């Protein structure tokens, strides 16, 4: 039974990824990496909520796109980049939890990360 539990736990760990959340301070920028898009996010405290600004581009020469949203406590904003057919999207979440603004990094399964790094080394 212990062996079966260990195998199951190891499999779950391999399948789960490292989606991490970090706190963002007003006016401080945070880098965003969503598939082929890179950019920054920052926010300012306004009288009607936290004004969040995210700017993304697919390269130095590409026209950037900007997302602007004012979040009150308990609200969240998701920026989602579709992938190839049958592949999950790459999602980045911005969460207002009371007076704290959290940025949730995209979920990357560890199996995919290991496979990608193995292919890159070949």
Structure, explained:
- The N terminus and C terminus are likely disordered.
- The chain is built from 2 helices and 8 strands, in the order H-E-E-E-E-E-E-E-E-H.
- The chain is globular and about 40 Å long.
- With 122 residues, the protein is an alpha+beta fold.
- It is 21% helix and 44% strand.
- Keywords: Signal.
Summarize the model shown.
21% of the residues lie in helices and 44% in strands. It contains 2 helices and 8 strands; from the N terminus they run αββββββββα. The protein has helices spanning 2-15, 110-121; strands at 21-24, 30-34, 37-46, 49-57, 65-71, 76-81, 90-97, 100-104.
**Low-confidence runs of at least 5 consecutive residues:** 2-18, 114-120
Structural class: alpha+beta
Order of helices and strands: HEEEEEEEEH
* Overall spatial form: globular
Number of domains: 1
Signal peptide: 1-21
Keywords: Signal
Task: Provide the descriptors you would attach to this structure in a database record.
122 residues; alpha+beta; 4-stranded antiparallel sheet; 44% strand; globular; disordered N terminus; disordered C terminus; signal
